[in-house]
Amino acid sequence: MQSPAKRRPRLGHATPSALENLPPVALARVIARAGPRGAASLACASKTLRAAASSEERWRRFCADDIGIDAPVDPEGRVLPSFKATYVSWLRSFRMYPLPLVKRVKMFWTMLKSWLSEFFPGALETFAEGLSDTDIRIAEYELGFQLPMPTKLLYRFCNGQLWRNDLQSCGIIGGYEFYYHEMINVHLLPLKHAVERAKLLRSDNGAIRRSNYIVVADTSFEEKTFLLDCLSGQLYVVTKNFKSNGEMMPCVPNSLIRLHTDNNHMPQDGLLLWLEEHLRKLQSGLIKVQISNFRRDARHISLYPETPPTCSIAVTHGIKVRASAVFVPEDSSVYGDPCKYVYYYFIRVSLPDACNVDGKCYSSCQFQSCSLTIRTGNCLS
Predict the structure, then answer these.
(1) Which of 72, 127, 157, 360 has a CA positioned 20 to 30 A from the CA of residue 27?
(2) Residue pair 301/172 in contact by the 8 Å Cβ criterion
(3) Could you tell me the residue ranges of all domains in the chain?
(4) Residue 264, Cβ neighbours under 10 Å: how many?
């Protein structure tokens, strides 16, 4: 029996799909809704869809929306031929992290560097280049535990501040001057130093010997220290009783800390939350860069508030008085001390214009003494 003849395929062009027949504007909206992965899949369907899905403008928007970048460069700053190649490069480099968190951390460092570039370039010069995931895994191996995901990303973009002779005043966390020639100024530690300090803590302080803490920021002489609990994600600052009993104070509310993606909420630990709030204070002008009162060649980020209501300003007879206070955790305690909370205050007296008092004109003034009223709730002391 003769086998039936095989049917030959018809020659000609395939019928365009309904998607390909859409007007350009409508097709662009569909691709935008599909997202980067959907656009990449559509580009494999036909030449028409490939041309539409490979639009440089569309991938520029993907890069801006998902990563927060506006130039075709890879994570190391190298120029790439297209925004599509840029997106792929960033996706591969940060494949271990959710892109919304990558964008959030990147935007934090971008805005902080922009602020420092304008107001405190000396501190910006101390920034170290970011680490690779391999560098971070090596540090975690030495520590014996993993870092929270947001902290890993912070170190991916910037490995803290490098040591310089003037780092004592260039710390990005800032500080305050008090008494005579005393300055507290906190800088962000490179991960290597954070690991070394964590090992010292385990050997020197029995109260936290078994805990998953690293030192993320401190002063040159360790007067003020910030610790990150990598198990809970909470950021702590030490008190004056730290060396005796490991006493610390939390820096952010526990309710804000999330170490895992939950209901479309990205992870956020205490270090990231605290740094973002610190940046908001800098951007709003609440805290500013000041010239040292004791070293006229030194500038530092002063934590004394500069705007009301945390800073009080009054003018009497043309004399302007500005007063503010800052909480000092390293001299405070949580338990067992009648003087629990310590504040440093700063008073600045100025004479914007010549003043007239009792018919006499004065062109200068001098601060001699003050009387303080301390309020605790509704009580006076």
Answers:
(1) 72
(2) yes
(3) 24-93, 99-284, 306-380
(4) 6
Distance CA 93, CA 132 (A): 9
Measure the CA angle with vertex 40, ends 35 and 46; round to 5°: 120
Structure tokens at 150: 């947001």
Output phi, psi for 172, to 5 deg.
Answer: -75, -15
Q: Which two tokens stand for residue 347?
A: 């008073």
99-284 falls under which CATH superfamily?
SMI1/KNR4-like (3.40.1580.10)
Structure tokens at 340: 């629990």
One pLDDT digit (tens) per residue for the chain, 381 residues: 455 555 554 544 555 566 665 676 676 677 777 777 767 666 666 676 666 667 788 889 888 999 999 999 999 999 999 998 999 999 999 999 999 999 999 999 999 999 999 999 999 999 999 999 999 999 999 999 999 999 999 999 999 999 876 667 789 999 888 765 578 889 999 999 999 988 887 776 555 665 789 999 998 777 899 999 999 999 999 998 888 888 899 999 999 999 987 767 889 999 999 999 999 999 999 999 988 777 666 789 999 999 888 888 888 777 888 889 899 999 898 876 666 888 888 888 888 776 777 777 777 777 777 777 766 655 444
To the nearest 10°, the Cα dihedral for 119, 176, 347, 311?
Answer: 70
Sign of CA dihedral 70, 71, 75, 81: positive
Name residue, tokens 């206070």: 325
Query: What is the identity of the amino acid at 40?
Result: A
Alpha-carbon span 89 to 373, nearest angstrom = 59
Q: Specify which residues 187 forms β-bridges with.
A: 218
As a whole number of angstroms, the distance between CA 59 and CA 71 comes to 11
